Every structure is written in structure tokens, then in C-alpha cells.
Amino acid sequence: MARCRKFVHMARLLRYRLENLCALTAALCVIAFPLAANARTLIIEGLSEAPLKWMVDRDPRGIDIDIMTEVLNDMGITDYRFQLVDNGRRLLHNAQNGSSDIILTLSQNAERSQYLQYPDEAHLLLDWRFAVRIEDRDRITFSDFSDLARHRVGAAAEYSYTDTFWQSGLDIEIVAKNDLLIPMLLENRFDVVPVNYLSTLYETLRNGQREQIAFIYPPLRRAPYYNVFSKASDYPDKDAFLKRYDQIIREMRNEGRLATIFQVSLGPDGLDWWQSQYQN
Q: Which of 278, 280, 279 is CA-nearest to residue 125?
């Protein structure tokens, strides 16, 4: 009889432990795979702007694409599609009406925050920097606008840069198009020009002018950019997605995976760019 009671006790204990184990397993499944239920194709949109994102024979390329692809791989999401649109108005319209789910690389402002859900983590800090000829990199420095008072400064019409730049009192010569600034700098018509650091870096690497120019640090302007969710999107579990997204971006930053993506796209300059963002 005692042996029978002992057997019954052990059976009940085993059943209790199995029930707890099943409950724990179910809970872990919900935490680990919150996006699996009712999932559909995730639509990710952005503007075509190398080196961040562009298409080659319908194959998406670029820094944004590589970062987002790695995030989705870590999440175990395989059903997604990148599509690029031709202008910013259409990009934001699609986000407002829920035609797209995620929009790549946007800055944050109050108006956009009304219809976009931002993560905590910015995946990029994008700079405007002053460019100079390589032989002037030690002669021309920038810590205050007064440092540039003796130099010929060019700028492009209809570019905001910063209010303090336009109000600096510098003798600024304005040109019609932004893509004239680097050629005019190299032709010795300007000494200093403000440029979008990332796009200028990429273009000069492509056209062979990179060794002819230097970028002055610190930046004229720096702003965080985010991959954001449309509030109108009906993609399931957006809150869980963004929470996991933030975690992965932090991991990629701490483990050096972001640095690797930048370096693959931009060579040694990519590593310098990453270090200036996160280590200064």
C-alpha cells in the first residue's frame, strides 16, 4: 500500500511538472515568435538614394537594405518585399494610408509622428559636413563659423543646411545645383562647401575624386534617422516588432555588425563614419 501511495505521489508530481513545462514552452513561443501568427508579406518602402538604397535589375542594394535584411533574418521573417518610390510625397502618402508597412530612413518631426510609429533606436546618424581640397585639410578647420571667414564658401540654392549657417555672416556664394559644389571646389573656385557627407563620399568614391577632397569634422549638422512603421498599417504585432527591432539594432551596433555593413559599402571611410557616429 505504501508503495502504491508513493507511486501515485510521483505520478502527480510528474504531471504537475509537465503541465508547468508545457505552459512555459507556450509562453516562450509567444515571446520568441510574436510575428508568426496571421503574418503576411511585409512591405518596406523607401526612396532610391545610393548608397542607402537602390535597385539593380529589381534587386535591392544598399546600406539600408543590408541593415533591414539582417534585422529580419534575426527575427526569422522571410516574407517581405522592398520597393522604392520616385518621390518623397508618394512615399509619405503610402505611409499615411497604410499601403506600406515600414518606411526606410526618415528623420523625426511632429508632423510625421502623427502617422508614423518610430522605434527608439536610430540606425543611422546622417551628417552635413564641410568639404575642402585635400591639400587644405590641415589649413582649414571648423569649430566656429568665424574659422571660415577668410575662405571662399559656396552653397547650393534651396538647401536649408542650418539657420546658423545662413545667418553666420560669411560671404557665401550661391550656386543653382548641389552637384556643382564639388567640381567648383576642385576647380579652386571655392575653398569650403557644405555637403551631404554620405552621398558625397559615395559619389567621390565612384568617380575617383575621393583622394582629392577631405571632410572637416565636426559636422555642420547631424540628425538621427529611423526605419519607421506606418500607424495605418495592419501588419500584425507592430509593437512587438519594434521592441525586437530596437533590441537587434543595439546588438548589431555593439557586436560590430553595423560597422561591417558600412565598411563593405564604403571601405575604410565606412569604418571612420561608424566610429564618428558611435565612438565620439
A: 278
